[in-house]
Amino acid sequence: MKRLPNYLPTVLTVAIAIGLLIYGPIPQLAHYHEFADRRLWLGIPNAADVLSNTGFALIGLWGLWRLWPLRHHPALAVGWPGWCLFLVSLIATAIGSSYYHLAPDDLRLVWDRLPIAFACAGLLSAVHAEARGKEAGMTAVLLSVAAVASVLWWQTTADLRPYLLLQGLPLLLVPLWQADAPSKDRVAFAVAIGLYVAAKLAELSDHQLLHVLGFVSGHTLKHLLAVAAAVVIVTRLKQRVMPARQNQPGLGYPKAHLQE
After folding, report:
1. Confidence at residue 254, expressed as pLDDT on a 0 to 100 scale
2. Following CA atoms 60, 176, 140, 219 in sequence, which dihedral angle do they give, to the nearest 10 degrees?
3. Residue 124 in contact with residue 178, Cβ under 8 Å?
4. What is the mean pLDDT of residues 46-75?
5. What CATH number is associated with residue 101?
6. Which range of residues forms the domain containing residue 187?
7. Residue 171 falls inside a structural domain
8. 198-225 confidence digits (pLDDT tens)
9. 41 pairs with which residues across the strands?
10. How many domains does one find in the chain?
11. In a domain, 218, yes or no
12. Angle at 236 between CA 231 and CA 239, to 5 degrees
C-alpha cells in the first residue's frame, strides 16, 4: 500500500486552523453548567458526574505502575515523554473534573479543561514521535504550552477555537500518523477514537439520555466512554511490551517502525 505523504497531517492541520480563523469565535454553549443529573449520594452533590471520574485515575495509575519500569523498552522509549504526560493527565483529569462537577462554574471549568488539553498534547506527541522516529520530549513540551494557551485563551476571550482544535486533532492525526504502524496499534486506537466520539455525542445528549435511560445521564456516560477509550490505549501499550516480560524480545514493537 502506498504510504501517505509525510506533509499531509501538517497541511490538514493548517487548513483546519485557517478554517477556524475564518469561521470566527466559538462561544461556550449556553447553560453549559446545567447538567442533567444533580442527584446527591453519600453527601456528594452531582454524585454520578463526580464519581464517574474515578476511572481516569485508576487507569492512569495502573498505566504508570505497569509501564514506568518498561519505559526504556523499544516499544515505548521514543514516545515515552508523551505517554507519561498522557497517563499523568488522566489522573489530573479525575481530580480536575471531580472538582469542577462538585460545583460547576467557569472558574472550576479551567481545572477540568487543563488536564484534558494536556492529555491530548501527550497523545499527539507520543504518536507523532513513534511515527517519525524522533524522541517526543520537545514536542510534548511545545504541545503542553499550546494546551495551557488554549485554555487561557478560552478563559480570557470566551472563544473555544484553540481548545477545540487541540481536542479534535488526535481524531484526525493519530490515524494518519499510524497508517504504517503495526495493525494491532491501528485497531486499538481506532476503537479508542470511536469510543471518544461516542463520548462527545453522549455529552451533547446529556438531558435526553437521562430522560430515556433513567439511571445515567449523557455527561456521566461521556466520562465512562472516555475512560473506556483510555483503557483501550493503555492496554495496547501494555501489550506492546508483554513479550519483553516473557523473554521474547523479537515479538516486541518493531524497531524499524520507530526509526522511519
Report:
1. 45
2. -40
3. no
4. 97
5. 1.20.1070
6. 45-258
7. yes
8. 999 999 999 999 999 999 999 999 999 9
9. 44
10. 1
11. yes
12. 125
